[in-house]
C-alpha cells in the first residue's frame, strides 16, 4: 500500500504541472493573503483604523456603480452601437465616506488621452485595449465593447479615463497590492473585471422592464415610480440623473459600502447621498433609442 506521503507528493507534482501549464496567461488578481489577519468590515463602517488598505477601499469606501441610458453614440458609422435591452456601464467610483472624492491620484498610471484637468497631461501611448490583450483577455475586451460604450469618442478612451480618474484613487487597486510579482497593467485588467462584476449586480433595464417601465417615446413615468422599482430590488434608492431640465432619464448611480475588497467583496447597497436631477413633479421621459444606434448583443 502506498504511504499517505507518497500520495501527497504525487498530488503536489500534479499541482505543479497544472500551474505550469497555465503560466502563459499571467494573473490579474491582487494578493489578499495579508487580509486574513485584518478585521473585515464594510467600508466606511470601521470602528478602528483599517491598517491594510489593500483589503478595503480606503478612504474611498463609498463605492458608486454608475450607468448610462443614452440614445446614441455619435460613432454609429464606425460600428460603435448601444446594446439592445440594456443600459451601459459608466464606471466604479471611490467616493470618500462623506461624499467628497479624489481624482487622477497616480500620474504614473495616467492613460486618459484627454483628462481635461489642470496638471494632468494627455496620454498618447498605446490604448488600454492593448493592455487587456497582453493578458490574453479577448473575452473581457469583447464584453466591454458590448456594454461599456463611449459617446463621441472611441470606447477605449472612456475605459482609460475611468481607470486613471477613479481606480488610481481606489486603494484596493494600488500597485503595492499585487505584491512583488506585479506585472505592468495587471491592475488595469483587474479593475475592468471588477467594474463588470459590480455592474452585473444592477441590471437596471431588466429591473425597470419587469415592472412595465420600458423605453417609450409616447409614455412618461414619474421619478417616484422609477425610484420605488429600483428600491424594491436593491434595498435602496439610487441617484437618478436627468437631462433636458430634469425631464429625460440619462443615468443611475448605485451607492454601496463594500465588505472586503472592491474586486471580490460583497456590496451593500445604500440610499444615494446625492439629490436626483430629475424633476419630482414633471413627467420623466425614458426615451427609446434611435433604431440605428443599437444592436442585438448576446449574453
Ligand atoms: C477607518 O479606517 C481609516 C483608515 O485607516 C481611518 O482613517 C479611520 O479613522 C477609521 N475609522 C474609525 C472610526 O476608526
Ligand atoms: C489634450 O487633449 C484635448 C482634447 O483632445 C485637446 O483639446 C488639448 O489641446 C490637448 N492638450 C495638449 C496639451 O495637447
Ligand atoms: C425647468 O424646470 C423648472 C421646474 O419644472 C421650470 O420652472 C423651468 O421653467 C424650466 N426651465 C426651462 C428652461 O424649461
Ligand atoms: C432610503 O430612502 C427611502 C426612500 O426615501 C426611505 O424610505 C428609507 O428609509 C431610506 N433608508 C435609509 C436607511 O435611510
Ligand atoms: C425617441 O426620442 C428620442 C429623443 O427625441 C430620439 O432621439 C429617438 O430617436 C426616438 N426613438 C425612436 C425609435 O423614435
Structure, described:
By secondary structure, the chain is α+β, with helices and mostly antiparallel strands. The chain has one domain (33-295): Ribonuclease T2-like (Ribonuclease Rh, Chain A), CATH 3.90.730.10. The chain is 27% helix and 14% strand. The protein contains 7 helices and 7 strands, in the order αβββααααααββββ. The strands form 2 sheets. Strands 1, 3, 4, 5 and 6 form a 5-stranded antiparallel beta sheet that branches. The protein starts with a helix and ends with a strand. Bound molecules: 2-acetamido-2-deoxy-beta-D-glucopyranose (NAG) (5 copies). One 2-acetamido-2-deoxy-beta-D-glucopyranose binds at residues 114, 122.
Task: Compile the SSE list and pairings.
Elements: H1 4-22, E1 62-68, E2 82-83, E3 88-95, H2 128-134, H3 138-147, H4 155-166, H5 186-200, H6 204-209, H7 223-234, E4 239-243, E5 248-259, E6 266-270, E7 294-295
Parallel strand pairs: 2-7
Antiparallel strand pairs: 1-3, 1-5, 4-5, 5-6
Bound molecules: 2-acetamido-2-deoxy-beta-D-glucopyranose (5 copies).
Rg (CA only): 21 Å
Q: Note poorly predicted spans.
A: 1-22
Classify the fold: give the CATH topology.
Ribonuclease Rh, Chain A
Name the helix and strand elements from N-terminus to C-terminus, one letter apiece: HEEEHHHHHHEEEE
Secondary structure tally, helices: 7
- Report the major sheet: 5 strands, antiparallel
Beta-strand content: 5-15%
Strand pairing plus helix content: what structural class?
Answer: alpha+beta
What is the molecular shape? globular
Which ligands are bound? 2-acetamido-2-deoxy-beta-D-glucopyranose
Give helix % range: 25-40%
Number of domains: 1
CATH superfamily: Ribonuclease T2-like
Count of DSSP strands: 7
End-to-end CA span: 50 Å
The CATH C-level class name: Alpha Beta
Amino acid at each position: 500500500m502506498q504511504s499517505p506521503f507518497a500520495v501527497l507528493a504525487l498530488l503536489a507534482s500534479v499541482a505543479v504541472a497544472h500551474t505550469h501549464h497555465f503560466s502563459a496567461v499571467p494573473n490579474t488578481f491582487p494578493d489578499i493573503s495579508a487580509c486574513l489577519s485584518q478585521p473585515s468590515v464594510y467600508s466606511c463602517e470601521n470602528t478602528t483604523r483599517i491598517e491594510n488598505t489593500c483589503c478595503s477601499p480606503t478612504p474611498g469606501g463609498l463605492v458608486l456603480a454608475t450607468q448610462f441610458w443614452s440614445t446614441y453614440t455619435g460613432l454609429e458609422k464606425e460600428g460603435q452601437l448601444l446594446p439592445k435591452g440594456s443600459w451601459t456601464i459608466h464606471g466604479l467610483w471611490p467616493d470618500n465616506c462623506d461624499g467628497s472624492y479624489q481624482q487622477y491620484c497616480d500620474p504614473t498610471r495616467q492613460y486618459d488621452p484627454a483628462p481635461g484637468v489642470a496638471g494632468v497631461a494627455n496620454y498618447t501611448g498605446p490604448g488600454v485595449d492593448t493592455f487587456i490583450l497582453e493578458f490574453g483577455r479577448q473575452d473581457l475586451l469583447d464584453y466591454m465593447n458590448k456594454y461599456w460604450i463611449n459617446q463621441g469618442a472611441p470606447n477605449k478612451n472612456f475605459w482609460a479615463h475611468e481607470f486613471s480618474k477613479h481606480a488610481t484613487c481606489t486603494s484596493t487597486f494600488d500597485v503595492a497590492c499585487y505584491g512583488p510579482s506585479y506585472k505592468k497593467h495587471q491592475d488595469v485588467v483587474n479593475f475592468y473585471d471588477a467594474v463588470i462584476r459590480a455592474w452585473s449586480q444592477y441590471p437596471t433595464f431588466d429591473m425597470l422592464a419587469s415592472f412595465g417601465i420600458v423605453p417609450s417615446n409616447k409614455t412618461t413615468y414619474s421619478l417616484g415610480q422609477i425610484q420605488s422599482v429600483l428600491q424594491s430590488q436593491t434595498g435602496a434608492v439610487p441617484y437618478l440623473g436627468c437631462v433636458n431640465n430634469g425631464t429625460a432619464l440619462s443615468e443611475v448611480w448605485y451607492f454601496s459600502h463594500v465588505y472586503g475588497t472592491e474586486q471580490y467583496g460583497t456590496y451593500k447597497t445604500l440610499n444615494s447621498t446625492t439629490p436626483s436631477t430629475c424633476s419630482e413633479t414633471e413627467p420623466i421621459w425614458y426615451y427609446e433609442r434611435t433604431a440605428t444606434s443599437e444592436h442585438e448583443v448576446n449574453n
